Amino acid sequence: MEDYMLRAMTKDGQIRIYAAVTTNTVAYAKKVHDLFPTPAVALGRTLTAAAMMSGTLKSEKSTITIQIKGDGPLGGILAVTDARSNVRGYVHNPYLDMPLNDKGKFDIAGAVGKGYLDVITDLGLKEPYIGRVKLVSGEIAEDITYYYAVSEQTPTVTSLGVLVDRNGDIVNSGGIFIQLMPGCSEEDISWLEKCVEKMPPITKMLAPDRTLENILDEVLPGKELVYLDTRPVRFKCTCSRERMERNLLSLGIKDLEEIAADNKETELVCHFCRSKYVFSPSEIREIFERAKQEKNTEGNEQVKE
What mean pLDDT is reported for the chain? Predict the structure, then answer.
């Protein structure tokens, strides 16, 4: 099955649903970053959440960034999505090797530790909207639920899962958001609570021959669902040589001068996709000269003012 994200609502408009299958996307992220199993599960859950959050974006230029900063050995997680469910992300410690927890599951909470969850929504305006909450568990799904409750006042059921086999390969990955709309009736709340009590982990419901529509019909029985749209999910980085040049320019005159004086090749590596960009000594000197020119131009403009 190809990865995709689905948006749906109950026919009465009281409940909104986002669901995603991200198996191939997470497997690709694991390969690109050479992730050990625990970091792969942590990043996979976060990428899946980002893919589902993309369903709230309307403008092509909008993005959502999920940033998890904890004091655990994983160090942190970052995932970004655009309005087309193109996601990218990384963890700070890809080679973290942790024992399973007391339940025999990956200890994501122990890997993440205590800290904060930031959700940064950039709609292309002057300033992005930043919502921050404390991590309530570090397992990511519960933290996303808490974020929606506190920052967006939207009661949300969150299911995120990544299944890894004994060889460390990704078997499946996916997630579901179920959100109560303002004015939702007590009857709908009670019905949803009963559905959630019976809902198996998402990794147990995902299968090559089952669609997200099949899964939602199973976990939300008794309500007519309206499927709004679907879109493919994929890992797609936005890095480029031009962007790396801008990163070099942002270092400043002094640092660029030191790099140019070394007269060696300079290699930059993208955090998101591990692509390498090599700049020759002559290219570094050209960038250094450009930085000086830009600084002189800025100085002249300030004098004119």
Answer: 94
Please tell me if the domain spanning 4-235 has the same topology as the one spanning 241-304: no
Those residues whose C-beta lies under 8 Å from the C-beta of residue 183, and which sit 6 or more positions away, are 14
Percent over 70 (pLDDT), the chain: 97
Place 303 in a pLDDT band, splitting at 50, 70 and 90: very low
* Helix-strand-coil split of the chain, %, nearest 5: 40, 30, 35
Of 216, 181, 229, nearest in space to 58 by CA: 229
Strand partners, 172: 163
Read off the pLDDT of residues 114-170 as tens digits, 9 standing for 90 and up: 999 999 999 988 899 999 999 999 999 999 999 999 999 999 999 999 999 999 999
* Type of residue numbered 141: A
Residue of 146, 170, 145, 130 lying closest to 42 (CA atoms): 170
CATH number of 241-304: 3.90.1280.10
Long-range contacts of 121-129 (CB under 8 A, 24+ apart): 121/62, 121/63, 121/64, 122/62, 122/63, 122/64, 122/65, 123/59, 123/62, 124/59, 124/61, 124/62
Is 4-235 assigned to CATH 1.10.3720.10? no
Map tokens 């995932």 to a residue. 79
* pTM greater than the 0.90 cutoff: yes
Q: Is the pLDDT of residue 302 over 70?
A: no
Rounded average pLDDT over 250-274:
93
Q: Where are the domains of the chain?
A: 4-235, 241-304
157 CB-near residues (< 8 Å, 6+ apart):
145, 176, 177, 178, 179, 192, 196
**What's the CA gap between 98 and 36, in Å, rounded?**
9
